[in-house]
Amino acid sequence: MDIENKSTDKPKQTDEFSDAAFKTKTNEDQNEEKPAKKVKRKATEEQLNHPLHGVKLTYILETLVDYYGWKYLADRVNIRCFMYNPTIKVSIKFLRKMDWAREHVEDIYMDMLEDEDYLKRHVK
Description:
The chain is mainly alpha-helical. Helix content is 53%, strand content 0%.
């Protein structure tokens, strides 16, 4: 039995991760690829004076729940997370996704800030 020894070597394929891909960068290359520095916008006077400026959504919701309660919020904003087994965590998650619901809650908060009873209790 003569078995011919055939070469099973495949032709060498080019490797996509060749040494050329790992070429070290020179200072010139690094300078060209730097992203532009972001310029921070400063808040306008109107934004700084807005009652919601710097107030977190969690604080708004906790304050509303303490002042009004879940039942009142469920009556004012018709969403299930206020009606059935309400929790701060689930409500915040929903309000962050749904702009319309967050705007309603923010409006209720603004109304609460103008309420005389709230002002008597919290503003000295």
